[in-house]
Automatic annotation (TrEMBL):
It comes from Campylobacter geochelonis. Belongs to the bacterial solute-binding protein 3 family. One of its GO terms (molecular function) is ligand-gated monoatomic ion channel activity. SUPFAM superfamilies: Periplasmic binding protein-like II. The keyword Transport applies. Keywords: Signal, Transport. One of its GO terms (cellular component) is extracellular region. GO terms for biological process: amino acid transport. Pfam families: SBP_bac_3. This is Amino acid. The gene is fliY_1. Residues 30-240 form the Ionotropic glutamate receptor C-terminal domain. It comes from the Bacteria. Residues 28-248 form the Solute-binding protein family 3/N-terminal domain. Residues 1-19 form the signal peptide.
Amino acid sequence: MNKIFLVCALFLTFSFANTLDDIRKAGVVRIGVATGWAPFSKQNEDGSFEGFEILFAKELANSIFEGSSGKVEFVGMSVAQRIGALEQNKVDMVIWGFTMTPERRAVIDFSTPYFSMNLAVLTKKGDKVTNLSDIRDKKIAAVKGGVPEEYFSNKGYNMVSCAAEKDCYRMLKEGKVDAYADDNLIVFIYPLIDEEVEVNIKSVGSTYFFGIGVQKGNDSLRKFLDQNLIRLSKDGFFKKAYAETFEPFYKGTVDRKYFLLDDLYSFL
């Protein structure tokens, strides 16, 4: 009886994914994206989306429908909602700064990576933090469920969870934490708009990669994404999209060579 209940419960929380053919027949592809993570993706007041990952998603949608009348439906979501949205077939894919970790690979599948990142730490200038030893016994904020929280927790740091990036920054400013750890491109934003904070710890741990998340076993869609991701790279799409989104956002202070993977794709 308990086994039957468990099987039923699993079916209630898991729905089979739409294959590539299913998506084409339906004429719509549903893509999970961030709502407030410029310049990757942000939702405007009129409900529309813009950013690097939005341009990327639109190009993939055009490839899926091969120039026909299909459309893309953007579904805004939080970090914590991404895996559940795939498992419950609420979206067909997630393009949302989705770091490819072994734990996530166990429950979903990823495309070939399209972006590389490192962790970095934001602190107040007055605290004169220059290396990790300076914050070993301090409170560090990180977005709940993300790679920074996992990394620093595993290293034994005193972590404080926050719901979103702006909440982590606010906690630092209000003195509730001593540092804020996140992807380097995220923390690099704050010194541009706030002269009282800085990023002296610019690279922590190993480089990690963003991939497109799809439901486990949706091989037709994953393989299609892999093929078109490499095609877009060779066509110069990522350089162009970076120039349109990241360069104006960061005022030319962030070099694309540290983040784009075009050099790796040249071997494929």
